[in-house]
Amino acid sequence: MIGKIIKSQKEIYYVLTELDTFMCKARGVFRKKNIKPLVGDNVEFDITENSKGYITKILDRKNEIKRPNIANIDQILYFITIKNPSLNLFNIDKYLAMCEHINIDVVIIVSKKDLADEKDLEFIKMYEKIGYKLVFIDNYNDFPKNEILKILDGKTSAVSGSSGVGKSTFLNNLVEDEIEIGTISEKSKRGKNTTRHIEIFNLGKNTNIFDTPGFDSFDIDFIDDEKDLKYCFKEFDNNSCKFNNCNHINEPKCKVKDDLLKGFVEKTRYENYLLLFEEIKKRRQTW
Fold first, then answer.
1. How far apart are CA 273 and CA 227, in angstroms?
2. 110 is in an annotated binding site
3. Are 15 and 2 spatial neighbours (Cβ–Cβ below 8 Å)?
4. Pfam families this protein is in (predicted)?
């Protein structure tokens, strides 16, 4: 039989088919080959006489991300907040760079818009100007359900972002199952992670959404060479500089630095590019 892994807990995988959902284990051969089935994987599995399921083959993956470790994603809904918890532009740009590198579309969900000033909301629209879809929501008083459902329609989407940014409340507005909602720690002003496992919810034909554990930080291990980072910033004009191998840092007649001076490239984005460039370079040099 063929199905999709929609949930995993320890070594049990819940595989959804057109008929039913089956609880399965992975055959020992996967462990020997150091291969782990992921939520989102399309798999072949057998059902034994005692109704136990065993995954026998993982079908080709469209893509995979490491944190959270999921597969076959069409787009990511990346949650950020201006306040409670506070905005972190460096983490945003790092995450967007990762998604660009592995070619996954991103929709930026600005949650808790009711806590932000108009000036802050206008500032974050810089991401809209460079091509990212931006959606502002108030999970409790102004939830744009119809707009969200159009964004999700016909796709497998993953909900991602730091703990406490409103992901669980967002999902509760979309799915029938009740999802545990946490609070913000008063001591750290960071969210308490309430999602304990990765799970997929079906919202209609060919429309699925992941519930994934929140994260506070991640390693920039998705890219090996700092010289490839420039291709992960979609507003950079990488083909108009004097030198073909321009990294847009110290090279003369650099189109990106010229665009920076003219205001076509946001200063914070460029500064975060430089920080990421050095982070990748240092990591490579310590290999």
1. 11
2. no
3. no
4. RsgA_GTPase (PF03193), RsgA_N (PF16745)
Q: Is 3 annotated as a binding residue?
A: no
165 is in an annotated binding site: yes
pTM over 0.90: no
Residues of each domain in the chain carrying CATH 3.40.50.300 = 64-184+192-211
* Strand 75-81, strand 156-160: pairing: parallel
Is 241 annotated to bind a ligand? Reply is: yes
Residue 64: its pLDDT value, please?
A: 86
Instruction: Please check if 161 is assigned to a binding site.
Output: yes
Stretches where the chain sits below pLDDT 50 are 178-195, 215-217
Residue with tokens 């840092």: 249
40 assigned to a ligand binding site: no
Task: State yes or no: 119 annotated in a binding site.
Answer: no
Is CATH 1.10.40.50 the right assignment for the domain spanning 226-286?
yes
Give the span between the Cα atoms of 266 and 216, in whole angstroms.
Answer: 24
Annotated ligand binding at 162? The verdict is yes
